[in-house]
Amino acid sequence: MNHELIPIFDGHNDALTRLWLSEDADPVHAFIHQRLAGHLDLKRCQKAGFVGGMFAIFLPPFSYVKQHHPNKLFDQNATDFTQQQIEQICLEQLDLAQTLVQRSENIKICTSVADIQRCHVQQKLAIVLHMEGAEALQHNPDLLEVFYQAGLRSIGPLWNRQSRFGHGLNAKFPHSPDTGAGLTVEGKAFLKRCANKKIVVDVSHMNERAFWDSIDILQQPIVATHSNAHALCPQARNLTDAQLKAIRDSKGMVGINFDVAFLRADGQRNADTPIDVILDHLDYMMDRLGEEYIGFGSDFDGALISTELEDVTGLHKLIERMQQRDYSLKLIEKICQRNWLDALNRIWL
Ligand SMILES: [Zn+2]
C-alpha cells in the first residue's frame, strides 16, 4: 500500500499561535515558502499528505509569554493580559490565518466539509478555524459573530485556567478528570449560543463536571479534538471509559493527542518515547468508541512530540504501524480523514 495516497485531516494544531509568537521577520512567508521551526508548514504538510486540520487561535499563558517571548508583551510591568489585549491577541492570530490565505493560493479557510474536499482535490491546505479557550469571547458577545463571519467553526470554551465560562483544568499527574466545579451559568449560556450556530464545541480541556454539563446542554455530537485514554495515561486531560462511552453515544469524535505526556503511563514529558504508545491508545479507544468516532488530534506546535515521529512528515510511520497491526486500508482511511469529515458534517449540516 502506498501511504502517500492516504490523506490526513487532523483535529488540533497550534500553528497559528506559533506564527504569532514567532520572531521570524516574516513568519507567514516562512510558513508558505520555506521551513518554519516547529511541527508543520505548507511544504511539509504537502509532503506528508496532511490535507488540513483544525487550526487553533489560542491565548498563551502570560507567564509563558513573559518568560519566552517578552517582546510580545504589551506592557513589560504587567502581571497579566487585560481583556482588551486578550481580544487583540486572538484577532491577530485570525489575521495571520487570513494573511496565509491572501499570500498563498494553496491555503484556504474552510467552513464546510465540501470546502475541505474541494481543497483536497485542488491540493490546497484546508484550515478549519478553532478557538482554544474562549476568554476572548467572555466579555463582548458580539465578537463571536466577528470570528464566526471570518470562518470560526469550532471552539473549546475552556482551557487550563479559570474564566467566566468555567473552572480551568489544572491538575498534577496522576489525577482523575474530576478537578472541581464545571461550567458557570455564563458558560452554559455560551455553549447554547455555539450550538445554535452549529459550532463544534470541543471538550478536550474540560474537567469532568464541565464535560457532563456539556453532555446535558448539547444536542450535537460531543467532540474532544485532542485527548487520550485515561485508563492508559491517568492525566486529568484524558477521557475515562464513561466519557468515551458518552462520546460514542452522541456520535461524536476523539482526536488522539501525540503529546508524550498524554500518552505515557507514567505521564513523563520525555520525547524518547516510541510511537507505538499512540497505537496503544488508538486500539484502546477504538474498542470503546468503535471505528467511526476516532481520528488524529496531533497537538502539533503545542506538544512535546516523540522524536520518532518528529513532525508532520512522520505521520506515515503511524500509518505503517497501523498496517503492522492489521488495520484494513478502509479503516486507516477513516482514522486518517473520513471520520473527522463525517463528524464535522454531523454538526455543521
Ligand atoms: Zn490543548
Automatic annotation (TrEMBL):
Q: Which GO terms describe its biological process?
A: proteolysis
Please provide, alphabetically and separated by semicolons, the GO molecular function terms listed in this UniProt record. metallodipeptidase activity
Q: Which domain of life is it from?
A: Bacteria
| Species, as recorded | Acinetobacter halotolerans
Q: Do you know which Gene3D superfamilies this protein is assigned to?
A: Metal-dependent hydrolases (3.20.20.140)
Query: Any idea what this protein is called?
Result: Peptidase
Q: Which Pfam families has this protein been placed in? A: Peptidase_M19
Check the record and name the InterPro entries matching this protein. Dipep_AS, Metal_Hydrolase, Pept_M19
Q: What is the lineage of its organism?
A: Bacteria, Pseudomonadati, Pseudomonadota, Gammaproteobacteria, Moraxellales
